[in-house]
């Protein structure tokens, strides 16, 4: 299905790089099938050098030859980029937008009758542990859906959801790695505060979050039950959890997700 297809990225920033790294690592595409376009020559040199992919500063030409076209620019410039390339995008091209807040209706207005897919992935696609939510556009048939599912499931887990839920997804799993990195960093600092060497503190912190997440996914148990298994009566964990509850960690995480989801909605209105 994806064999020999030309896959291109308009915007070669952080998320495009994470996807390129992930799909090449998964062996889904060969480097010569992949083209990246970016406004910065320096960035194109870096991507070509690091991943041996093709690069081009000509967005319209890249859009014209793409069979799968990723829109990976910031929400603030997507309208300008679409205006520049829209007339070159062929009706057979599958267009996959990961632009936060940018709606299928806006995509279809710019690219009439083109099969479009709106996806919200996250940066762990770079290491095969991404979380992506997919919503298909009006002109996307089952084949288009299969292409999007194949790409994103090669670099992590995929859910199909109605587009109306993608802002919520953005607040939770799209931005979520950011929250997780803050937590990992904070726990590592805490380990140093408690006397651990920095390198070991960081490993202890990151591997602990990785292990806990894996337990939730592999056992299918409710996190509350798994938490109870760690929490010996009168022991250390409940002393720690008491402090987290006192400081409102749950409410802070909840407010973070809602703030990010609201921001995604706001970006979509511009
Ligand atoms: N980062 C993430 O975790 C996720 C991001 N997304 C979405 O992915 C998109 C990209 O995000 P991210 O990678 O973080 O952003 P970046 O800013 O890292 O990447 C965007 C890239 O596009 C370049 N660019 C700007 N204007 C143009 C243009 N006219 N033509 C071609 N390239 C251009 C930028 O260059 P310059 O920097 O010089 O402006 C930059 O290199 C966003 O829409 C975001 O909402 C979705 C899920 C997760
Ligand atoms: O911060 C952002 O706007 C993007 C969208 C989701 C993750 N990063």
From TrEMBL:
GO BP terms, alphabetized: L-proline biosynthetic process
Pyrroline-5-carboxylate reductase catalytic N-terminal domain residues: 6-101
Keywords for the protein's UniProt record, in alphabetical order: Amino-acid biosynthesis, Cytoplasm, NADP, Oxidoreductase, Proline biosynthesis
Pathway assigned to this chain's UniProt record: Amino-acid biosynthesis; L-proline biosynthesis; L-proline from L-glutamate 5-semialdehyde: step 1/1
Domain Pyrroline-5-carboxylate reductase dimerisation: 163-267
Documented EC number(s): 1.5.1.2
Catalytic reaction annotation: L-proline + NAD(+) = (S)-1-pyrroline-5-carboxylate + NADH + 2 H(+); L-proline + NADP(+) = (S)-1-pyrroline-5-carboxylate + NADPH + 2 H(+)
A Gene Ontology molecular function term of the record: pyrroline-5-carboxylate reductase activity
Gene Ontology CC annotations of this record: cytoplasm
Localisation: Cytoplasm
Binding annotation for NADP(+): 10-15
Pfam family, one: P5CR_dimer
Enzyme class: oxidoreductase
Family: Belongs to the pyrroline-5-carboxylate reductase family.
HAMAP family linked to this entry: P5C_reductase
Protein role: Catalyzes the reduction of 1-pyrroline-5-carboxylate (PCA) to L-proline.
Name of the protein described by the UniProt record: Pyrroline-5-carboxylate reductase
Organism encoding this protein: Propionispora hippei DSM 15287
Gene that specifies this protein: proC
């Amino acid at each position: 299905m994806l064999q020999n297809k030309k896959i291109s990225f308009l915007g070669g920033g952080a998320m495009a790089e994470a996807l390129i790294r992930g799909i090449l690592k998964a062996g889904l595409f060969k480097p010569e099938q992949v083209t990246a376009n970016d406004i910065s020559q320096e960035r194109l040199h870096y991507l070509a050098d690091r991943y041996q992919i093709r690069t081009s500063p000509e967005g319209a030409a890249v859009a014209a030859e793409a069979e799968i076209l990723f829109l990976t620019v910031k929400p603030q410039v997507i309208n300008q980029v679409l205006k520049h390339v829209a007339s070159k995008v062929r009706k057979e091209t599958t267009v996959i937008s990961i632009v936060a807040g940018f709606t299928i209706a806006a995509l279809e207005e710019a690219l009439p009758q083109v099969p479009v897919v709106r996806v919200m992935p996250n940066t762990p696609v770079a290491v095969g542990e991404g979380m992506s939510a997919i919503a298909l556009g009006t002109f996307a048939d089952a084949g288009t859906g299969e292409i999007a599912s194949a790409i994103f499931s090669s670099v992590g887990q995929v859910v199909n959801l109605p587009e109306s839920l993608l802002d919520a997804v953005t607040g939770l799993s799209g931005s979520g790695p950011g929250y997780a990195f803050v937590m990992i960093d904070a726990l590592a600092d805490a380990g140093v505060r408690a006397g651990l060497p920095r390198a070991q503190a960081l490993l202890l912190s990151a591997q602990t979050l990785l292990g806990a997440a894996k337990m939730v996914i592999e056992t299918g148990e409710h996190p509350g039950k798994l938490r109870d298994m760690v929490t010996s009566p009168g022991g250390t964990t409940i002393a720690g959890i008491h402090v987290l509850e006192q400081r409102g960690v749950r409410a802070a995480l909840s407010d973070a997700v809602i703030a990010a989801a609201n921001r995604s909605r706001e970006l979509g209105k511009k």
